[in-house]
Design a protein that fits this description.
The chain is mainly alpha-helical and about 475 residues long. Helices cover about 55% and strands about 5% of the residues. The protein folds into three domains: about 5-135, Fumarase C, Chain B, domain 1; about 175-230 and about 245-395, Fumarase C, Chain A, domain 2; about 405-460, Ribonucleotide Reductase Protein R1, domain 1 (Orthogonal Bundle). The strands form four sheets. A two-stranded antiparallel ribbon has the order 1-2. Strands 3-4 form a two-stranded antiparallel sheet.
Length: about 475
């Protein structure tokens, strides 16, 4: 059975579409022009564009700017999409030329055709509801798209922040669980001085807490929007009532406390706020990757490496080596970190490359930024659930390394001096004789003072009073 077709026209010419399609000619042109990533628009982003269209229709109806019947049909169409329908009609590639015009028109056309049907018309009859004149009324791509982008960042960041809080809690619990376990601290991968295993996990938790707070602070910029600026910041074609009330209405619909940018020209041409958020995600990625490196090192072996902790066994580690278990969860977190750091470079280049009154490269900024948020959320979740909560301390191995190390000699510097301590360390390394035995044999300290100086707990905390 042949598909029924309809013909639409625009300033470029005519195209034939499937009559069942809710998108229109401008969307189809975009699909043909931009086969780039194979990924469609992020649907959270689509929903936020739709939310803006709904807010605009409500304001335009309230102040007599748009006919009530048309406005109600547009609002009803928006609600249909917001309830999850018509996903298949958003067909534009995530990366596109035109500063997001294709994304905006995809939404405009789908809303228009749904609204047309609600009013008893046929899809494509834009004399009933026009994508440009009615759905896009008082708006421009140049204020709709960045505003939708900011709302999407806020939405995606909520889940990431929730997962970061869970990870921080899990690390803090391990810090308490492992607090009484002495291990060797290492600098430049060489023995340094003793520390408690719990202190290592406390440091992980502190770094995650700092990353979470940094991200939260950067999101404040996402609540300043340029809606009402229209094309470049002059608010051309936006009537006073719309201009005055649109931000307030969008705040009500989105649940976010939004404010209009004080300088709409700046708000339209500069996208450094997205670069700032990306920078905090990069910093988080760095912290996560460093932590993952440490987990892999501390669990290495298990017989011929450090083996201080035991990571949960999640899958076979080799197709050829029986019994081999790899640290696959920290490894995947490392890879997400590499991805996010690369995304940040792309975002920085795209933010810098804008010219004059508009940055045309928001599509690639959003593609990478949304990807970073989504990937980090998944990475943090799997790190917490499939690794951190199941880590077991290898107490015997930790104690073995402390007992074999000459790192504790550093604690004797205040008593016998650096040079003498270095001689003792060198002798211990050469002969295998314990540090304590050498000090007592040479009469450098009495046993009581030496035991106090080498007390495991005191070695891992600031000391009060004189030595």
């Amino acid at each position: 059975m042949e598909k029924e077709l309809r013909t639409e026209s625009d300033s470029v010419g005519e195209l034939t579409l499937d009559s069942a399609a809710y998108y229109g000619i401008q969307t189809l042109r975009a699909k043909e022009n931009f086969t780039i990533t194979g990924s469609k628009l992020n649907f959270t982003f689509v929903r936020n564009i739709v939310l803006i269209k709904k807010a605009a229709a409500i304001v335009n109806k309230s102040y007599g700017i748009l006919d009530e019947t048309k406005a109600d049909a547009i609002i009803e169409a928006c609600d249909t999409i917001l309830h999850g329908k018509h996903k298949k009609d958003f067909i534009v590639d995530a990366i596109q030329g035109g500063a997001g015009t294709s994304a905006n028109m995809n939404v405009n056309e789908v809303i228009a055709n749904i609204a047309i049907e609600h009013l008893g018309g046929k899809k494509g009859d834009y004399s009933v509801i026009s994508p440009n004149d009615h759905v896009n009324m008082e708006q421009s791509t140049n204020d709709v798209i960045p505003t939708a982008g900011k709302l999407t960042v806020l939405a995606l960041a909520k889940e990431l922040l929730s997962e970061l809080s869970r990870l921080e809690d899990a690390l803090s619990q391990k810090a308490v669980e492992f607090d009484g376990i002495l291990k060797m601290g290492r600098t430049q991968l060489q023995d340094a001085v003793p520390m408690r295993l719990g202190q290592a996990f406390r440091a992980f938790a502190t770094a995650i807490c700092r990353s979470r707070k940094r991200i939260e602070a950067s999101l404040a910029e996402m609540r300043t929007i340029n809606l009402g600026a229209t094309a470049i910041g002059t608010a051309i074609n936006a009537r006073e009532a719309y201009f005055t009330h649109i931000t307030e209405e969008l705040s009500l619909l989105s649940g976010e406390d939004l404010k209009r940018a004080d300088d709409l020209f700046d708000g339209t041409q500069n996208v450094d706020g997205f670069a700032a958020v990306s920078g905090t995600l990069k910093a988080l990625a760095i912290n996560l990757s460093k932590m993952s490196n440490d987990l892999r090192l501390m669990s290495s072996g298990p017989r011929t490496g450090l083996g201080e902790i035991i990571l949960p066994a999640k899958q076979n580690g080799s197709s050829i080596m029986p019994g081999k278990i790899n640290p696959v969860i920290p490894e995947v977190v490392n890879q997400v970190a590499f991805l996010v750091i690369g995304h940040d470079v792309t975002i920085a280049l795209a933010a810098e490359a804008g010219q004059l009154e508009l940055n045309a490269f928001e599509p690639v900024i959003f593609y990478q930024l949304f990807g970073s948020l989504r990937s980090l959320t998944g990475a943090v979740r799997t790190l917490c659930d499939n690794c951190i909560v199941g880590i077991v301390a290898n107490r015997e191995r930790c104690a073995e390394w402390v007992n074999r190390s000459v790192g504790i000699v550093t604690a004797l510097n205040p008593y016998i001096g650096y040079l003498k301590a270095a001689e003792i360390a060198k002798e211990s390394l050469k002969t295998g004789e314990p540090i304590k035995s050498i000090v007592l044999r040479e009469g450098l300290m009495d046993e009581k003072t030496l035991d106090e100086a080498l007390d495991p707990r005191l070695l891992t905390e600031p000391r009060h009073g004189n030595f």
